[in-house]
Specification:
By secondary structure, this protein is mainly beta. The chain has one helix spanning 127-136; strands at residues 2-5, 8-12, 15-16, 23-24, 37-41, 50-55, 60-66, 69-74, 79-84, 89-93, 98-102, 109-114, 123-124. It starts with a strand and ends with a helix. It has a six-stranded antiparallel beta sheet, with no helix packed on it. It has a five-stranded antiparallel beta sheet with strand order 9-8-11-6-13. The chain contains one helix and 13 strands. Residues 7-134 form the Sugar 3,4-ketoisomerase QdtA cupin domain. This is FdtA/QdtA family cupin domain-containing protein. It comes from Flavobacterium cupriresistens.
Length: 137
């Protein structure tokens, strides 16, 4: 399964099924960037919203490794909401896309695979500034 829109793409990871439990893998051949950083968000209080920013260069691949959550993405022209709820399906978010994560289920864990290390100057944290940024491109 691959579904894409401007700036985002849903990618199914390989799923190796076994009676002892399933296994999925993330490799550079599956996502279109070199992995430079991996982190995860967990113990999210009810009603919390994460994200609320865009990146100038960084690309991310998000997976709900446990539970579910919604990812609201905006490329400056359209807004979409994608629900992530399978540990073998992820959302590629390219640079220049605003994102917010919300509606976290109890016990959910969001795994993020990133193309760059943390660089504060790469963030656009104000939505109006984001719109100005994408309109300049």
């Amino acid at each position: 399964m691959e579904i894409s829109s401007k700036g985002i793409q849903i990618i199914a990871l390989p799923k190796i099924e076994d009676r002892r439990g399933n296994l999925s893998v993330i490799e550079n051949e599956i996502i279109p960037f070199e992995i430079k950083r991996v982190y995860y968000v967990y113990d999210i209080p009810s009603g919390s919203v994460r994200g609320g920013h865009a990146h100038k260069n960084l690309r991310q691949f998000l997976i709900a490794v446990s539970g579910s959550f919604d990812v609201v993405v905006n490329n400056g022209e359209e807004e979409n909401t994608i629900t992530l709820n399978k540990p073998n399906v992820g959302l590629l978010i390219n640079s220049g896309v605003w994102r917010e994560l919300k509606n976290f289920s109890s016990g959910s864990v969001c795994l993020v695979v990133a193309s760059e290390i943390y660089i504060e100057d790469d963030y656009i944290r104000d939505f109006d500034e984001f719109i100005k940024y994408v309109n300049r491109k």
